[in-house]
# Entry
Amino acid sequence: MIRTCEAIVLKAVPFAEGGAVVSFLSEHGERLSGLAKGVKKPTARWVAAFEPLGMVRVSFFGKEQTELKRVTRCELSFSPLCLGHLESSLVMACLADLFDRVAREGVEDDRLYRLLSACGRALKADPDNALGILAYAEHWLLHCMGLLPHPRTCGRCGSETAPLVLLSPEEGWCCSSCTPVDPREALPAGSREHLRNLRLRGAEAAPRVDPTDGAQQAVTALLRARLLQELGGGLRSYDVLWRSV
Ligand SMILES: [Zn+2]
# Structure
């Protein structure tokens, strides 16, 4: 039985004789994986079809319940790759790693596909904002996982105006009027506004990383730590990224 769908390539792990086990995020937001058999003389087209974050049309062959299906066709329709742009390539690997962990086999969540395809297109259009796009994706992934409460109101007292000071696992965003926090540990002023920017903008307008923006730095670090903690840490792509930028 052959199944064909639009998908985004996540990761390709080398397998016997030049083949690879490739994971994909389907257009319905489900994780799919299959064995792409090695070919004797891989063409550039064949290789490019399995690069992370490539948007492809892929066909799988195999019985419904078999352990590993075969990838019989994989045609690249859009690649976010900008040759020679290291930071953008490294961020693509991080995104592939993240979505490979978050997406589930047998579980559809089309928000994941929309998010990752938007990030891919934004990376292609503006590779210099790769780190901003990564932070944007992390924020929305947390949201999709149900781990990011809305920042409009304080989860403890309901205030809509007092500055947010921390993110509590139980109560969500907490504000300064109900939660005493050492000022050195509180979220900087402007954190709610930065969260609001992340929510209201598309990936192509993801806030650019600004080292002088304390609220952005703090929110990015907080959300990233929360996400990586939830995913069990150990994402090699992130280690590589931090060693390189
Ligand atoms: Zn409050």
Remarks:
- The longest strand covers residues 2-15.
- The longest helix spans residues 86-102.
- The chain has seven helices and seven strands.
- The pocket of zinc ion is lined by residues 154, 156-157, 159, 162, 174-175, 177-179 (CB under 6 Å).
